[in-house]
Amino acid sequence: EEDFQQRLAAYSDQAAHLQPLREGFENLLGQAHHWQQRLEQQPEYVSVVELDAFLTQAPKQWLTLPMLPFEYQTSLNEDWQEALNRIRQVRIALESDFDALKSMTQTLQQAERLRDQTQGLDSQKITTLQSAWTNTHRPHVLRDRVPELEQSFQSIISQLNTRASKEAKQRDELLAQLNTQLAQVETALEQE
Predict the structure, then answer these.
(1) Which pLDDT tens digit goes with each residue over 137-161?
(2) Which residues of 21-34 are buried (b: 16+ CB within 10 A; e: fewer)?
(3) pLDDT tens string 53-93
(4) Are 141 and 94 in contact (CB under 8 A)?
(5) 3 state DSSP class of 120
(6) CB–CB of 156/108 below 8 Å?
(7) What is the Cα 69 distance to its own chain's centre?
(8) Helix 2-41 to helix 70-116 angle, to the nearest 10 degrees?
(9) For the whole model, what pTM was predicted?
(10) Residue 83 near residue 33 (C-beta atoms within 8 A)
(11) CA contacts within 13 A on the Cβ side of 175
């Protein structure tokens, strides 16, 4: 039993000595888990600048911490790498999503500009816009923004289609009137 007490005391001394060293690693792991949680729950509110700063600075801080004995350090390193890999994957997806949202917004702005033009509509432009919208990559992480953009775009396209139909009907009516008038002029000329 005395041997057990000595080993327990040695273990307690080692654990007490290692605890302050572990705290640095655990603090960085806690920050990484906090970032993971924010990215999973509300990615649209994440500051990319702050996230990039964390991804740049935290690994450097990790490497400057004093190493623990192998059996402790290995487990911490694996947890750290797994957390960083998940964060980096979401960061890459966010970049792609920002590009997708930018592209969707640009197409929406093109539709708004077309709607706001006072000159006659070309139905081919509407078709081109619809095709561009359909072919635009949709975000995955930031997918909460898509319904609002979709609704806005569809509303504008509906307005454009209604306007294009009215303009086409007006053109057809004007053409019919011109044809009628032309026929009347031709008839009047033949009678003279």
Answers:
(1) 999 888 888 999 999 999 999 999 9
(2) bbeebeebbeebee
(3) 999 999 999 999 998 888 889 999 999 999 999 999 999 99
(4) yes
(5) coil
(6) yes
(7) 42
(8) 10
(9) 0.69
(10) yes
(11) 6
